[in-house]
């Protein structure tokens, strides 16, 4: 008998009706003769509602109490899902993170799983029960509840799969797989049957909603194959797995577009050693993630230093960037929100020259100007004006024949 | 330093604003130099909302999963209340029933507390923290979450007080004490400064909303003094304690009126031994609680057997009573919803003859006919027509000078 781990995301469990629908899918899988662990996220907007209440009570809630509050979200969904499964006459039991002994470190709100003492889970499986486990949460050495932070339920799932040596792992959400690009941008986007861990990681903006990068890294570490599909239909999904098992290396697997980026330029900084270091140390100290960076030498030994950040960091950056700019004798700061980042990703890129040239050519064809470029081994990203993003994605998708996969 | 246990009911915590208000009261108590344990119920209608979802998922949820679901209610309120307390710069920590090691038996939905392993609670108190504990819930030997059933938070409170030998116990709700009768019926009702356990138990309809009978019994067992007051004002409340400590025995402490009763009459039953036994065994087997019973001999060795039930049992009774009546060869069943039960309670009644006569006289003065009477050592109850209840209560209240306490 195969042990299958299924994970259902918050959208899949958003309403009682959807919980009942998920229960039917779970029971079907069980009746096919599998042992089954089901990891559940909190129902749809439960977490948002709890956070709203929390913010009404306190501007600065302590992380321990925030975890105490937020862990109720999954507890509600595992109880309801288990009842819905039992309604089919199927034996099932729910376990919170603490009952499933998902042991984490002490970092509330962003805990890391250290170990799973899986005795109870195994005992319930042996009794023939479907074991429904709360994702996103665990317990520290003080028996206090912790949460794993963003993507936590995915991480729970992969950790359980590794701990119990499950044969199969299925991640269900409202997205039925990974596409060559966002189907909302380009309807002719094609679903990928397979994608490698690294491609998945680099395609964060396409894949992160479906499977959190942290979980992808964990899956990569243990070389665990994951199946990603939708709980709303029976379409075939996408398999995430190691690159060595791919039938054929594709030069380009997908095109991603991220509009949630902001370009910051510190103007006319003296071209002296250590200046860039000063700027980015200052930003790092405030916990701001920098994505792309370029530096252009101007007249008179003055540099323009540009970098991109995520939208969500804008407020923090505005609070400190002017002082940083002054400290390095710059002539001012420019903040440009009217930009987008278009990226191509492909494991085959490493061994195939000319991919970057093809990408730039595709953008030239539709008159899109490139402002910044970065390149890793399997990814090339270009920053462009936001209104060019749609046609850039279209043109690149066509250039690499991604619609004909 | 005194250890004080405070309990706040669901109405006191119904909204974020009320939680913030309760936090202020808690902090004030703490700043007066007390060690403090706070037991919290679920916020207002949280439990109702969870039950609604549960009923949408399943007609017949398993008790274990129902407890898994319902225990989230108090977990949410302890987290929010603790944050609100911490907002005042006060050290505080929340503990669920499982973390507080409130150990119960295995009876989900109506578990009984067997023991409290209070090490963690003591440790947190020693650190100077206010310990906020989820009422209504515990953990069984399998580490599964249990709930204590109705009045559970009160029971948690008394059990904690006993386990930790607290100096004082304060029960806060939206009612500011026990009155000589319901102030909604009779505005001249007077608040009692003291009431005995037994009087409190017999006055269930006056007191049960404020403090559950199960908790009263537990307090009586350990001889624990309780202070009952409102969280919405600073009025003096009522102290519940043993009768031996009362300044002066009152003949009558209070008048209660219960309209949620229904009178059932099984008509013209043959006067044979064992018939009444058959009827009430049948009802007991279906879990129906009988309150008052009378039997009137009619002509021809035929009896009318009347009894009262609570409104909430009417549906169940209707399903079985006709068959029971037929089995004892009765001539039919009469169901009368137009009745109310008026009771007087007083620990001094035992040693004072003539109290019943006074009560009946008071009712006669206002032309109220008595249909049924029952009497215990400290309580006399009369069943009357519902529209006579108001004037009966008024007249009895006056007869015993309860407005002049």
Task: Give a topology summary.
2 copies of one chain form a homodimer.
Chain A: E1 3-8, H1 16-31, E2 35-40, H2 46-57, H3 63-86, E3 92-95, E4 102-104, E5 113-116, H4 119-126, E6 130-134, E7 137-139, E8 145-147, H5 152-164, E9 168-173, E10 194-196, H6 197-202, H7 204-207, H8 213-222, E11 226-230, E12 238-241, E13 254-258, E14 261-270, H9 275-285, E15 293-297, E16 302-310, H10 314-327, E17 333-336, E18 339-345, H11 355-365, E19 372-375, E20 379-385, H12 389-399
Parallel strand pairs in A: 1-2, 1-9, 2-6, 3-6, 9-11, 10-12
Antiparallel strand pairs in A: 4-5, 7-8, 11-12, 13-18, 14-16, 14-17, 15-16, 18-20, 19-20
Q: State the secondary-structure class of chain A.
A: alpha/beta
| DSSP summary: helix tally of chain A | 12
Low-confidence stretches of chain A: none
Shape of chain A: globular
Give the strand order of the largest sheet of chain A, numbering strands 1, 2, ... along the chain.
3-6-2-1-9-11-12-10
Main sheet properties of chain A: 8 strands, mixed
Q: Please identify, by name, the CATH architecture of the largest domain in chain A.
A: 3-Layer(aba) Sandwich
Please identify which CATH superfamily of the largest domain in chain A we are dealing with: Acetylglutamate kinase-like
Q: What is the CATH topology classification name of the largest domain in chain A?
A: Carbamate kinase
Q: What is the CATH level 1 assignment of the largest domain in chain A?
A: Alpha Beta
Number of domains of chain A: 3
Approximate strand percentage of chain A: 25-35%
């Amino acid at each position: 008998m195969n042990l299958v781990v299924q994970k259902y995301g918050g959208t899949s469990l958003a309403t009682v009706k959807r919980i009942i629908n998920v229960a039917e899918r779970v029971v079907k899988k069980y009746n096919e003769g599998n042992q089954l662990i089901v990891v559940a996220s909190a129902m749809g907007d439960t977490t948002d509602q709890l956070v709203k209440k929390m913010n009404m009570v306190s501007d600065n809630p302590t992380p321990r109490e925030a975890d105490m509050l937020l862990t109720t979200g999954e507890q509600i969904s595992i109880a309801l899902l288990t009842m819905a499964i039992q309604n089919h006459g199927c034996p099932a039991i729910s376990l919170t993170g603490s009952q499933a002994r998902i042991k984490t470190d002490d970092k509330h709100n962003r805990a890391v799983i250290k170990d799973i003492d899986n005795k109870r889970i195994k005992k319930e499986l042996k009794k023939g029960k479907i074991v429904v486990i709360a994702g996103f949460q665990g317990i520290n050495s003080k028996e206090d509840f912790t949460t794993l932070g963003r993507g936590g339920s995915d991480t729970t799932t992969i950790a359980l799969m590794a701990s119990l040596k499950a044969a199969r792992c299925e991640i269900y959400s409202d997205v039925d797989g990974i596409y060559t690009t966002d189907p909302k941008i380009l309807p002719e986007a094609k679903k990928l049957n397979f994608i490698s861990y690294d491609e998945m990681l680099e395609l964060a903006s396409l894949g992160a909603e479906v499977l959190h990068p942290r979980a992808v890294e964990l899956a990569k570490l243990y070389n665990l194959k994951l199946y990603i599909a939708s709980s709303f239909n029976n379409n075939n999904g996408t398999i995430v797995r190691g690159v060595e098992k791919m039938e054929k290396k594709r030069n380009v697997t997908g095109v991603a577009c991220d509009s949630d980026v902001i370009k910051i330029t510190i103007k006319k900084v003296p071209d002296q050693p250590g200046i860039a270091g000063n700027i980015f140390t200052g930003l790092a100290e405030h916990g701001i993630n920098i994505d792309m960076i370029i530096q252009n030498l101007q007249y008179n030994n003055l540099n323009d230093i540009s970098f991109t950040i995520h939208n969500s960091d804008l407020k923090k950056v505005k609070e400190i960037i002017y002082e940083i700019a002054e400290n390095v004798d710059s002539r001012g700061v420019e903040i440009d929100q009217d930009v987008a980042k278009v990226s191509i990703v492909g494991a085959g890129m490493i061994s195939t020259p000319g991919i970057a040239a093809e990408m730039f050519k595709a953008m030239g064809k539709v008159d899109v100007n490139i402002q910044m470029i970065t390149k890793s081994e399997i990814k090339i990203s270009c920053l462009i004006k936001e209104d060019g993003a749609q046609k850039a994605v279209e043109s690149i998708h066509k250039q690499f024949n991604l619609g004909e996969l």
